[in-house]
Design a protein that fits this description.
2 copies of one chain form a homodimer. In chain A, about 40% of the residues lie in helices and about 15% in strands. The first copy, chain A, contains 12 helices and 12 strands. In chain A, strands 2-1-3-4-5-11 form a 6-stranded parallel sheet, covered by helices on one side. Chain A has a 6-stranded mixed sheet with strand order 7-6-8-9-10-12, sandwiched between helices.
DNA sequence: ATCGTTGTCGATAACGTTTTCCATGGTTAG
DNA sequence: CTAACCATGGAAAACGTTATCGACAACGAT
């Protein structure tokens, strides 16, 4: 009776004087065990502190009850998304393994693909891909849902938000404040969201009868360093913009930093609006006017949809787009 | 040859004209296979895109190559720690499952314990406990390392930082600025860190010959709401403090908020120093003077130590305390 | 020739479950 | 009194690996 090794179903069976089959039945609440034995087996399980081996169950059932979430890096957006996912996973009977690529740039393409093919069906039952770097099709047998998907056609189930409208809202806000020279700091060119935000910006400009100035469009790549550099260039160039719409909050915050370094004040000398409404945007100085995207909700939905997919449950629309909305804080001001 | 189901080691063996045993040997680079067959089997593996079933391996090896990280909630501290952990895990051959209790308060005690007993040895090979709510001993056979451990004696391997010294540094900084009425917003009373920060505060005061005023010590619980309420009480009480040392950055930021609501400016009317140096502390307004704790490094170390423990490798000291240091930003000012 | 050695390889028993199917004994219907 | 049935329980195969151990051939040394 040395508890040197794990207590197994066999131990329980022996102690309860039944077969392992019966024990298995009580664990899984199968039909065909009398009330008396059920009680007895339950008692023994309790007594021995028996926990079924998830590994053995997985092997037998072809189901691990683990789902993966793949992020390029743990920056504010994916962190926030992770919170939503963690919320949704709780009590679902699944566990969540997170894999962060660590913002590596050296990897040419498709760490997601490799990861997925290695783990699918053997460690995870499904995965959510956050801002995937590649447009991949699902591994057969392993459901995948994408959040903020890759550009390029893909038929993966998808969660995103209304990037187009959000970008229009942001740009219109700036226009209403009287700004005319509005720069745009673009996002990661391989992401649909980035493309749509740019389109939204251009449309709003066009609708206002303003010709887009290529010199005012720079790459931000959703990255602080890149954004800071671009913002610097923008602000030291000839005829500098009076406002910039950054494709995400990270870029916006970097822009504020760059402006400050140049002795410009926000929103005094420059209005800045971001996108995402990550918690940092409310905290930073000045609090950022930005486009709200219900990030946590997106994480929540992604997990719920994935679980439905895994269970073969009825899953509603396979592509859901959540609303965006402008939240005005203090990084924008009417042009004087 | 229908790829309806996963390709198994048996398929590879058949195609290569060898036994499964041999295939297993080449997978695990065991001795006893000729160069010729090795090459052939490798080729077949490549051709069929075979990936060994982690589940089956786990069952056989009693090792899952998964480690768990348990956090009470994904607030900035644990998020930052998670980044360090994710970094450390990459390329280690392990996967990371994160479990967040979701900041639930209803759970009396020991969700960690339950989680661990359910998963240990069956899904995870070991776990790191972040700010554990309970002082538990290791599950036999499942290594555990605690980060910022529970108060109360425990012999778990531990990573923490020099909380005592950090708190003294913070308090001394305030003293040097001429503050005498320095309030303290305490942390989660069940955590060693909280206790030590309080002790540090008290010692620094004592060393300066200042009697601690119980009215200036309030509970912050590392929680924004609780902290805001306590800060409000502190600042509206009689003879309000000119400075507050908050037991973590979250509390400090909440304090700044409370002050602002009361029409007080920081650092003009009130100096505030935090603890942790989470990224938010640099971002917020005003940028927070705080005590730096190498959070990511702590996550990194925790994972590395855990892996060593799992592998039975030589693990150095089983309790490591990292240095803390004061970082002065703009939330503190000399008393005028 | 005989005997160990060395180098390859394969049969097989685990690992801890779940499920299918069969056996048993008791009960009810005819 | 027999036939059919139901309720309960167990034997055993399977899931996909890995480790042990024995088989066998080739070979050099005696």
């Amino acid at each position: 009776m040395q508890p040197s090794s794990r207590v197994t179903i066999r131990d329980v069976a022996a102690r309860a004087g039944v077969s392992v089959a019966t024990v298995s039945k009580v664990i899984n609440e199968r039909y065909g065990v009398s009330a008396a034995t059920l009680a007895r087996v339950r008692a023994v399980i309790e007594e021995l502190g028996y926990e079924a081996s998830l590994v053995a169950q997985s092997l037998r059932n072809h189901r691990t009850n683990v789902i993966g979430i793949l992020v390029a890096d743990l920056e504010p957006f994916s962190t926030e998304l992770l919170k939503g996912a963690a919320d949704a996973i709780r009590g679902s009977g699944f566990e969540l393994v997170v894999y962060s690529a660590g913002g590596r740039t050296g990897d040419p393409v498709g760490w997601e693909k490799r990861y997925l093919s290695r783990l699918s069906g053997t460690l995870v039952d499904g995965a959510v891909l956050v801002t995937p770097a590649v447009s991949l099709e699902a591994v057969p047998g392993t459901p995948v849902v994408a959040v903020d998907p890759h550009t390029g056609p893909s038929h993966l189930p998808t969660i995103d938000s209304d990037n187009l409208r959000g970008a229009q809202l942001a740009t219109e806000h700036l226009l209403e404040l009287g700004h005319r020279r509005i720069a745009f700091l673009s996002g990661r060119p391989d992401l649909q969201s980035a493309e749509l935000r740019k389109t939204g910006y251009l449309r709003a400009l066009a609708a206002a009868g303003i010709a887009a100035d290529e010199a005012l469009i720079r790459i931000g790549a959703y990255d602080p360093e890149v954004s800071a550099a671009s913002a610097h260039a923008l602000l030291t160039g000839p005829d500098r913009p009076t406002a910039v719409f950054a494709a995400n909050d990270i870029s916006a915050i970097a822009t504020v930093g760059a402006a400050r370094e140049l002795g410009l004040t926000v929103p005094g000398d420059l209005s800045v609006v971001g996108f995402d409404n990550v918690p940092e945007s409310a905290l930073c100085s000045p609090p950022l006017t930005t486009v709200d995207q219900p990030i946590r909700e997106m994480g929540h939905r992604a997990i719920r949809m994935l679980i439905a997919l895994i269970n073969g449950d009825e899953v509603g629309p396979t592509h859901v787009t959540l609303d965006t909305g402008l939240v005005v804080r203090h990084s924008t001001r009417a042009l004087s």
